[in-house]
Amino acid sequence: MKATRLFTNIGVAAGLAAMVLVGMLSSSMCAQAQETEATLSQMGLAISPVPLNMAGKDPTQVGLGSYLVNAIGDCNGCHTGGGPPNFNYAAGGNPYFGQIEKIDPTVYLSGGQDFGQVGTPTGPMMYAGPDIIARNLTPDKTGMPEGGHTLSQFLQIMTSGTDFDHLHPTCTAAQLAQIEAGTTPLPVCIPTSTGNTANGNLLQVMPWPTFSHMTQYDLEAIYAYLSSIPCIEGPSDTTSVLHNDCGSGGVTPPPATITIVVTGPGSSTSGTTFQTNASQVSLNASQSTSTNAGPLSYSWQPAPGFPSVAIPGGHTATPFIQLGRPGTYEVILTVTDSTGATATATITLQYL
Ligand code: HEC
Fold first, then answer.
1. Same structural domain for residues 301 and 152?
2. Domain range enclosing 314
3. How far apart are the C-alpha atoms of 163 and 156, rounded to whole Å?
4. 194 CA distance to ligand 1 centroid (A)?
5. Which of 55, 101, 242, 248 is the right S-S partner for 234, CB 3.0 to 4.6 Å?
6. Does residue 234 fall inside a structural domain?
7. Whose CA is nearest to atom 12 of ligand 1?
8. What is the mean pLDDT of residues 91-103?
9. Does the CB atom of residue 57 touch ligand 1 within 6 A?
10. Residue of the nearest CA to atom 38 in ligand 1?
C-alpha cells in the first residue's frame, strides 16, 4: 500500500517535471523564433531602397516583407522599370560593373521588362502572342499594391498565378482563324497547339509556382511591404497596363528626404565610422532632418552578423553603445519621420 502510493507520487512528480521542461523548451524556442523574425525584419528595413510609408502598418511585418522582396524574391530584378545598361540599378551603382550597389528608386517595381512571347507560332504569321511584360507592383492612390489589388487577390496571384487583368487570354478558334488569315491588327491572345498549351488565364514567366510554396504569413508580409512603397505612375497613357493612378496627395507617401547625421567619439573616418578606445560609446543623431515637418523617432539595433552590443537609449537620438571587447561592431539606425517615411544608416564602430 505504502509502496504503491510512493510510486504514484514519483509518477506525478516526473510528469510535472516533464511538463515544466516542455514549457521551458517551447518558450525558449519561441523567443528564438521571434528573435529571428526581428533580425530578418531589421535587415529588410535596412535594405529597402525606397522610403516607406509606415502609417497604420506593423513595422516588423513590413520589414519581413522587404527582406523577402529585396533579399530573396528578386522581385525588382524582373519588375524594375529600368532599361539597359543598368536596369534596376542607378547609374554609377551597378554591381555588375564593380560599383557599389545602388538600386534606382525611380523605377523600383514599376514594371516594364519585356520577356518576349510564349505562345506557339501558328499559320503564316508565325505569331506567338503578345510579349509578356512585368507589371507595375507599386501601390495606387488607394494604398493597395500592384495598382489596387486586395490582399485576397494578391494571395491568389502568388499561389495560383491568376491574371486578374486578363491581358493575354488563350486564343479562341475564331482568333486562330484570324491569325491564319493574316488579319491586322492581330488579336491580342496566346495561340496554342498540341504540345504547347500555354494557359493565357495564368501569369506567364512570373515565378508564382515557386512563390506558391511560401507561407501565407510571408505572403502577407510581402503585401504589407508592397503597400508601403512609393507609388510610381509609369507611362502617362492611362490605357497602358503599366500606368498607375497615384492620386493627388492621397495615401502615398509625400516625397521625403531624410538626412541622417550621426556624431560620435573622436574624428570619424567617414560619416558613419567611428574609432574608440572606450567600451562605451555615445552616439548622437539629433541633427538628422526630414523634408517633412514634425518630430523624428529613432531606433538603434545591433547589425546582424556582428558581435552583439547593448544599446541603452536605443529609442532616442542619443544612445549609448556598450561594446564587449576590441573589434569591429555595426549598428543600424532607423529614423522615422511624422509621416512614417523612414531612412536607415549603418554605423561602424572600431573598438581599438
Ligand atoms: C522572373 C521574373 C519575375 C520575378 C523574379 C518576379 N516576377 Fe512578378 N511578374 C513577372 C511577369 C513577367 C509578370 C506578368 C506576367 C504576365 O503578364 O503573364 C508578373 C506579374 C506579377 C503580378 C501580377 C500583377 C497584376 O497586376 O496582376 C504580381 C502581383 C507579381 N508579379 C508579384 C511579384 C512579386 C511579389 C515578386 C517577388 C516575390 C515577383 N513578382 C517576382 C515576372 C517576375
1. no
2. 258-351
3. 9
4. 27
5. 242
6. no
7. 134
8. 97
9. no
10. 73
